[in-house]
Amino acid sequence: MSRLRNDFLWGAATAPHQTEGNNINSDWWARELLAPGMEPSGDAVDSYHRYREDMRLLADAGLNSYRFGIEWARIEPRPGMFSRAELAHYRRMIDTALELGLTPVVTLHHFSSPRWFAEEGGWTNDRAVDRFVSYVETVTRILDGVEWVATINEPNMLAMMTMLQDAMRSGDVAEWKSPTVDGEAERQRIAANLPVPEPKYGHRFVAVHHAVRDIVRERTGAKVGWTIANQALTATPGNEDKLREVRYAAEDLYLEGSVGDDFVGVQSYSSQKVDANGVVPHPDHPDNTLTGAAYRPDALGIAVRHAWESTGLPILVTENGIATADDERRIQYTREALSHLIQAAQDGTDVRGYLHWSALDNYEWGHWEPTFGLIAVDRETFERRPKPSLGWLGAVARSGGASLTAG
Fold first, then answer.
1. What dihedral angle (degrees, nearest 10) is formed by the CA atoms of 317, 207, 220, 307?
2. CA–CA separation, 184 vs 187, rounded Å?
3. Contact call for residues 361 and 343 (beta carbons, < 8 A)
């Protein structure tokens, strides 16, 4: 048997900017055409209007949870001007999830910010913490009944992007790069080959997180944490000290920032090695995914174990998946990843849930080609077409994971 908790969350995840469409007041909307080769999000997959259909597909398949985000740029399109209509929209999303039997896992910030916030200087501006606190204080009004709240998605990736933005302002970097892929090589490569963020940026995000987590906890009663991009880094022979150095700046600083939280979100897709020079880029290989990442379903077990050993906090897998056009390969990857997750749970890791990335094929931060979804979407008609992987994961969920060990 899988030995997973009876209240284990089985679900899928999305982000607002990647799915909603027409997020015209966000910094990402303004940034999308700055870099050569980046595509606009446009209507995305129109989940702003079709969220009920999306949630129903997940629930009907047998999943019991849905992670989605609240878009700050919609809530506060101008400084200090909060939209009651948009607050009501996201409250309807929460109510819909609860109505359909889906436990909502709500993310308060998933990469995109109001355009005015970016123009003020973004996260390094002196007013940034106060601005985010004000937003969080407002949005907590609609979170009744929400049991899981993530303050910030992948602060380590956000720190890297903030560092690159500062480098652009100073002229040290000529152009913006997508956090998902870049198109400089013939084969697109994963953003994990981008630079490791300097710790000063990470400390900023830890301060932001700490400024709001108690606000959320006290006003809602929800479990509060944040979600961290876990690279499942391993050392090449003789480079264990370099691994510790690199992993601290890339990941462990943020895991330390989780101390005092109720859970930590683990987001893992692949694994990379660290040599004397740092993180080794993913080598070209026929099995690489559509983002150029190595096919490493075992990364999830590595990441979960490291997060557990580093924090002692309950683990919620808030993202795990594969960019592929071959849905059978998606099932194979997910089956293998879940086997490593279940083994970690059997070994004592406190794992509370698995949320697949992603529910839908969506906008991957400048690109449409990488498809992670359990559900395909026709971008002309917005017709949803569930893939076999959705039904497969739903069956796993209904069995509590037992179907994995039954073959």
1. 20
2. 8
3. no
Over its C-alpha atoms, the chain yields an Rg (Å, rounded) of 20
- The answer to whether the CB of 271 falls within 8 A of the CB of 236 is no
DSSP state of 248: I
Write the burial class of residue 398 (CB in 10 Å: 0-12 exposed, 13-18 middle, 19+ buried). middle
d(CA 352, CA 304): 11
Q: From CA 382, how far away is CA 311, in angstroms rounded? A: 41
Q: Which residues of 357-386 are buried (b: 16+ CB within 10 A; e: fewer)?
A: bbbbbbbbbbbeebbbbbbbbebeebebeb
Report the distance separating Cα 288 and Cα 33, nearest Å. Answer: 27
Instruction: Flag whether the pTM goes above 0.85.
Output: yes
The rounded distance, in Å, linking the Cα atoms of 323 and 295 is 10
Over the stretch 22-33, which tens digit does the pLDDT of each residue have?
Answer: 999 999 999 997
Select from 107, 75, 78 the least CA-distant residue to 89: 75
pLDDT tens-place string over residues 286-336: 999 999 899 999 999 999 999 999 999 999 999 999 999 999 999 999 999
**pLDDT tens-digit profile of 338-360?**
999 999 999 999 999 999 999 99
∠ Cα 342 344 349 (to 5°): 115
Residue 135: pLDDT over 90:
yes
- Tell me the pLDDT tens digit for each residue of 227-249: 999 999 999 999 999 999 999 99
Contact of 300 with 224, CB cutoff 8 Å? no
